[in-house]
C-alpha cells in the first residue's frame, strides 16, 4: 500500500517557497509575464490578485482564470517540452508573491513529500475547478455564469470577499459584454443576492442564500 505524507498546511506554503526562492512585490497593472514568453519560474500568491489571460492573433483577450492568495501560477514550467507561457499574467491589484525557479522546485518535489502532497492536492483542485468552469460556461445563461464565477472567486477558504474588479474584467471571464454584466450586477443588488461594500461585494453563505430564496418564494405566494 502506498502512503502519502500529510500535505504542508496552506498557510505555510508561501513561507516555504519564499525561503527557497525570492519574494516579489508587484504593482497593480504590472505584467508578470506574457503569453508565449519563455520562463523558468513558478509563483505563489501571498497578497493581491493576478489575472491569467489568453489573446488571439486578432488581439481579442479572454480571461481564463484569476489567482488569489494561496494560489500558484506559472506551474507549466515543470513541463520540459513546454514552448512558451500558455497565458499572460497581469496583477489586478498590488501583489506579493513567492517566486521559485523550476530546477529548485523540481528538487523540492522530489525530496519533500509534505510539499509535493500539497502541490498535488492543489493541482487536482484546479483541475476540478476548471471542469466546473467549463460546465458553467456551457450549461448556464449569463446571470448564473456570472454568479457562479463571483462565488468561485470569493470561496470562503480563500478570500471571503470579491476583490475590486472592473466590469470589463468580469465580462471577459464569462464571455459577455460589459454592458450586460452591468445590468446583471444591478439586478444582483436589487435582489439582495449580494451587497455592495466599498467597491466590493460581500456574499452570504450557501445556507443564507437558500434561506433567502425560500423566504422570497413564501412572499410570492
Describe the overall structure.
The chain is of the alpha+beta class and 221 residues long. It folds into two domains: 1-126, Jelly Rolls, CATH 2.60.120.10; 140-221, Winged helix-like DNA-binding domain superfamily/Winged helix DNA-binding domain (Arc Repressor Mutant, subunit A, Orthogonal Bundle). The protein is built from seven helices and ten strands. It has helices at residues 10-20, 102-111, 113-139, 142-153, 167-174, 178-191, 206-220; strands at residues 22-26, 31-33, 41-47, 50-55, 61-67, 72-73, 88-91, 95-101, 195-197, 200-202. The strands form three sheets. The protein has a four-stranded antiparallel sheet with strand order 1-8-3-6. A four-stranded antiparallel sheet has the order 2-7-4-5. A two-stranded antiparallel ribbon has the order 9-10. Strand 4 and strand 5 form a beta hairpin. Helix 2 crosses helix 3. The longest helix is centred in the middle third of the chain and has 27 residues, at 113-139. The chain is globular and about 55 Å long. The protein starts with 9 loop residues before the first helix and ends with a helix. The model is unreliable at 195-206 (pLDDT under 50).
Amino acid at each position: 500500500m502506498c502512503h502519502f505524507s500529510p500535505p504542508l498546511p496552506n498557510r505555510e506554503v508561501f513561507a516555504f517557497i519564499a525561503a527557497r526562492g525570492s519574494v516579489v512585490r508587484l504593482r497593480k497593472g504590472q505584467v508578470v509575464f506574457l503569453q508565449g514568453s519563455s520562463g523558468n519560474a513558478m509563483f505563489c500568491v501571498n497578497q493581491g490578485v493576478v489575472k491569467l489571460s489568453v489573446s488571439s492573433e486578432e488581439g481579442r483577450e479572454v480571461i481564463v482564470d484569476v489567482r488569489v492568495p494561496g494560489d500558484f501560477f506559472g506551474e507549466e514550467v515543470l513541463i520540459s517540452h513546454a514552448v512558451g507561457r500558455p497565458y499572460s499574467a497581469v496583477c489586478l491589484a498590488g501583489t506579493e508573491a513567492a517566486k521559485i525557479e523550476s530546477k529548485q522546485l523540481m528538487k523540492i518535489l522530489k525530496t519533500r513529500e509534505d510539499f509535493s502532497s500539497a502541490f498535488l492536492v492543489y493541482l487536482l483542485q484546479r483541475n476540478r475547478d476548471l471542469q466546473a468552469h467549463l460546465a458553467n460556461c456551457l450549461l448556464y445563461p449569463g446571470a448564473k455564469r456570472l454568479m457562479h464565477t463571483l462565488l468561485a472567486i470569493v470561496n470562503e477558504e480563500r478570500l471571503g470577499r470579491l476583490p475590486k474588479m472592473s466590469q470589463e474584467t468580469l465580462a471577459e471571464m464569462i464571455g459577455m459584454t460589459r454592458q450586460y454584466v452591468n445590468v446583471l450586477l444591478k439586478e444582483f443588488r436589487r435582489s439582495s443576492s449580494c451587497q455592495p461594500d466599498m467597491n466590493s461585494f460581500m456574499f452570504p453563505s450557501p445556507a443564507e442564500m437558500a434561506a433567502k430564496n425560500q423566504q422570497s418564494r413564501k412572499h410570492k405566494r
